[in-house]
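Sequence, please.
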């Protein structure tokens, strides 16, 4: 008898990313609400796509989209402070804490220490691209103008040596970006503007304390900076995110990153 030549239907094994999607979908079904991701999450995965409202509603009968806290994340207090964001939302704080400690040990002013403490908070909480600009906007309503300016400008200044103060192009950048990277024209232009600015040296000192070769065993706690923060960060009474400042929405987004709107 001739054997049946038609092959049995075989389900191809799932790829890592299909398995991750399936797991995510399963998790979403277990949640009380429908969770979504912002388009930026997809863009940074190389996909020009977005979560569709009506599709997801149809797949999740009886559920509504999330418009509040995401229970997978640490719970924020009703009136969050900067310290709460440090402890509950910033993914890694050792670099900024060590940078601020270095500035403190170097005898620098509160302004410099604050700028060092806050210089990379955009990276650890929010976004990498143009982190100096995002970080400066986040803190602008709450700190001295010079501190926000230094946070913004450290991004460009990091790429340019200043022999007068012994700042050289970071070894780490050679490792991270390769030997041939040249800053884009907008960064060069920003550097040139910063160079002529009256606060140039404030931002430059931030870059000089922005170092990675620390004692790996050094442990610094954000509570060690509570006094400096108290003196130099205007903590809003309503809570950071609920104070109607020009950047309150950015803090709320960190608090509730998966809100539908
Ligand atoms: Fe930075
Ligand atoms: Fe840094």
């Amino acid at each position: 008898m001739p054997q049946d030549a038609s092959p049995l239907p075989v389900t191809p094994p799932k790829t890592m990313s299909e398995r991750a999607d399936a797991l995510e979908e399963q998790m979403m079904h277990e949640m009380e609400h429908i969770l979504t991701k912002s388009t930026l999450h997809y863009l940074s995965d190389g996909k020009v796509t977005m979560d569709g409202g009506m599709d997801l509603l149809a797949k999740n009968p009886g559920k509504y989209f999330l418009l509040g806290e995401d229970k997978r994340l640490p719970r924020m207090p009703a009136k969050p402070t900067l310290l709460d964001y440090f402890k509950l939302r910033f993914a890694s704080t050792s670099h900024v804490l060590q940078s601020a400690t270095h500035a403190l040990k170097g005898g620098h002013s509160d302004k410099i220490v604050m700028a060092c403490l806050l210089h990379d908070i955009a990276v650890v909480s929010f976004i990498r691209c143009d982190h100096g600009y995002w970080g400066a906007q986040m803190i602008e309503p709450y700190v001295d103008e010079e501190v926000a300016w230094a946070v913004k400008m450290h991004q460009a200044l990091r790429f340019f040596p200043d022999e007068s103060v012994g700042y050289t192009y970071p070894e780490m950048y050679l490792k991270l970006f390769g030997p041939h990277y040249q800053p884009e024209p907008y960064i060069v232009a920003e550097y040139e503007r910063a160079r002529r600015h009256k606060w140039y040296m404030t931002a430059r000192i931030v870059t000089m304390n922005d170092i990675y070769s620390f004692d790996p065993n050094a442990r610094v706690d954000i509570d060690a900076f509570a006094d400096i923060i108290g003196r130099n960060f205007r903590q809003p009474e309503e809570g950071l995110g609920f104070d109607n400042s020009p950047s309150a929405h950015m803090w709320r987004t960190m608090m509730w990153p998966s809100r539908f709107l």
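DSSP finds 14 helices and no strands in the chain.
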